[in-house]
């Protein structure tokens, strides 16, 4: 390669050797994992059938637009009535730049992507409570720079007194102090004072308008208002997956699912709810319900991508080890609401283009749309919450969720009152064919239960985001699909598997 005589392998080569010779594989679920399995296996000459309970493909990879339908376990279905062209992603909305397999499939399937603006210092923190800075919106840049400034000031002063620099040469200690001053924006006396980093009260302009800088918030006020609480203070770049550059599929993340659907369309059986999975000595028998009643389909092998809380209620003859894993691995609660507004007031009035506002109330987060900037209308994600907050909100009716989103949201954006048009909400843990957001492992469940599902139970393989360390990411579905396809194909062909990440052998 150094001599330019050989080409480097593409980053995501998937060169499995040998042929499937028409072996029948029944794939359960037409989410990203299931459809990717069907897509890759068909390339290898397998005969695939994909059974999907819903009327649509994509599973969690779902964008809500005009006409989208959604019911929950305790709520009848409603239909979205957003304006044409507007949408929000009820499931995935961001692709990290290092999720190369997700990006690979976007490229291979011809799905155009655009940058997703995940980080916006102009968005807000809003802390409900009794502190001096509570119940008002504060720009992220003020909170981040104030806290960074005060912390570096403390360290620089302490270093100066010789307490922190033991073990450093005098020159090195000076370098550290210089760094702290630059990092925190400290003045020549190593004090944190107002600076342009945290924004202006009056913006600079022409003539005699130098701009007016606001005083920083007091450190004690930040502390007493909960803005430094570890479960609230949030710098996206500190999280590997949330570091820019992030991407999204142009026109909605469901474009990825739709592109896969096109590739596997002849194999799909829609509105086919799997009710039983039976390992037979020489294959599998799958029982499902469709409009005509109970049906049975036999295959040589099966790949099951059903989320575990759903699978837990499907009849089967799995081994006790596998059954236990299915029952004991937990999923989180999570929900989102899309709010359509007549006017993009967050852009027009507040200079917010994409990014996230964080609250400590049940909203948790407001996401501003990262597409169609400067256009007329837009959909905000009015809350995106998790766990107890998502559970509380999920209990509410669709109407009461909207009320809550508006009531709490207008504290930050009073424009809600004038500009709101309509909403649509999804609680994933209340959604029949998911019953959870994504798998959440403890050290114990990862160690005691996860390994059982990485191996096939006789002729049934398991795939999906839950069978990876990439939980809550589409990349998990893709990686898992490839891993299982390689494993199944390795067993069929008894060939060496040319997929480097595969530690699963049938
Ligand atoms: C709120 C939320 C936000 C997310 N954000 C991101 C993000 O920003 N970026 C990112 O990359 N990922 C994100 N994800 C994760 C991503 O959506 C998932 O990891 C991925 O879509 C999972 O794909 P899957 O095929 O494993 O499962 P699923 O998509 O759940 O597919 C399972 C399929 O099985 C079907 N099914 C269920 N029961 C039956 C049955 N009995 N019979 C037949 N079929 C059945 C379902 O209908 C579904 O189609 C998010 C997920 C959620 C919920």
Task: Describe the protein's architecture and organization.
The protein folds into three domains: 24-59 and 255-331 and 438-493, FAD/NAD(P)-binding domain (3-Layer(bba) Sandwich), CATH 3.50.50; 63-122 and 244-252 and 333-430, Polyamine Oxidase, Chain A, domain 2; 138-231, de novo design (two linked rop proteins). Mean pLDDT is 94; it is low at 495-506. The strands form nine sheets. A five-stranded parallel sheet has the order 14-2-1-18-27, covered by helices on one side. Strands 10-9-22-23 form a four-stranded mixed sheet. With 506 residues, it is of the alpha/beta class. The longest helix is centred in the first third of the chain and has 21 residues, at 140-160. A hairpin with a 2-residue loop joins strand 4 (69-72) and strand 5 (75-79). Helix content is 29%, strand content 23%. Helix 1 (32-43) runs parallel beside helix 15 (474-493), helix 2 (100-109) crosses helix 15 and helix 3 (140-160) packs antiparallel against helix 4. The structure holds flavin-adenine dinucleotide (FAD). Residues 28-34, 51-54, 59-61, 91-95, 273-274, 305-307, 310, 314, 334, 336, 428, 433-434, 437-438, 464-465, 472-477 line the site of flavin-adenine dinucleotide. Flavin-adenine dinucleotide (FAD) binds at residues 28-34, 51-54, 59-61, 91-95, 273-274, 305-307, 310, 314, 334, 336, 428, 433-434, 437-438, 464-465, 472-477. It comes from Mucilaginibacter galii.
């Amino acid at each position: 390669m150094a001599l330019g005589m050989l080409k480097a392998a593409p980053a995501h080569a998937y060169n499995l050797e040998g042929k499937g010779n028409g072996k029948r594989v029944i794939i359960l679920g037409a989410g990203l994992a299931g459809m990717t399995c069907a897509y890759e296996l068909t390339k290898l000459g397998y005969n695939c059938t994909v059974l999907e309970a819903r009327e649509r493909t994509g599973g969690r990879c779902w964008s809500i637009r005009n006409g989208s339908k959604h019911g929950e376990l305790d709520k009848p279905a409603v239909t979205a009535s957003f304006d044409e062209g507007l949408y929000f992603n009820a499931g995935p909305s961001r692709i990290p730049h290092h999720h190369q397999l997700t990006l690979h499939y976007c490229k291979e399937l011809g799905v155009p992507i655009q940058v997703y603006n995940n980080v916006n210092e102009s968005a807000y923190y809003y802390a409900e409570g009794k502190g001096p800075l509570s119940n008002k919106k504060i720009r992220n840049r003020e909170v981040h720079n104030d806290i960074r400034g005060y912390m570096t000031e403390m360290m620089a002063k302490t270093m100066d007194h010789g307490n922190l620099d033991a073990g450093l040469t005098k020159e090195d200690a000076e370098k550290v102090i210089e760094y702290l001053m630059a990092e925190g924006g400290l003045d020549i006396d190593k004090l944190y004072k107002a600076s342009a980093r945290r924004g202006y009260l009056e913006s600079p302009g022409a003539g005699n308008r130098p701009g007016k800088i606001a005083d920083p918030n007091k450190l004690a006020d930040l502390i007493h208002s909960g803005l430094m609480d570890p479960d609230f203070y949030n710098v996206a770049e500190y999280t590997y997956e949330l570091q820019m550059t992030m991407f999204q599929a142009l026109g909605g993340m469901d474009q990825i699912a739709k592109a896969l659907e096109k590739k596997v369309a002849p194999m799909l059986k829609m509105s086919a709810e799997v009710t039983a999975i039976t390992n037979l000595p020489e294959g599998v028998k799958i029982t499902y319900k469709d409009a005509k009643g109970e049906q049975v389909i036999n295959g040589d092998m099966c790949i099951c991508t059903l989320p575990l809380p759903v699978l837990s209620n499907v009849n089967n003859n799995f081994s006790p080890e596998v059954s236990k894993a299915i029952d004991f691995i937990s999923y989180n609660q999570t929900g989102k609401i899309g709010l359509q507004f007549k006017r993009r007031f967050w852009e027009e009035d507040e200079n917010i283009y994409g990014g996230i506002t964080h609250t400590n109330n049940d909203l948790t987060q407001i996401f501003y749309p990262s597409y169609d900037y400067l256009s007329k209308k837009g959909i905000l994600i009015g809350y995106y919450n998790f766990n107890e907050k998502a559970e509380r909100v999920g209990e509410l009716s669709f109407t009461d969720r909207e009320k809550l989103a508006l009531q709490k949201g207008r504290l930050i954006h009073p424009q809600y009152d004038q500009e709101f048009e309509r909403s649509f909400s999804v609680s994933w843990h209340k959604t029949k064919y998911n019953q959870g957001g994504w798998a959440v492992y403890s050290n114990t469940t990862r160690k005691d239960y996860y390994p059982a599902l990485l191996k096939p139970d006789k002729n049934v393989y398991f795939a999906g985001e839950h069978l990876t360390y990439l939980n809550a990411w589409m990349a998990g579905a893709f990686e898992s699909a490839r891993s299982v396809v390689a494993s199944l194909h390795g067993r069929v062909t008894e060939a060496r598997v040319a997929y480097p990440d595969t530690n699963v052998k049938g």
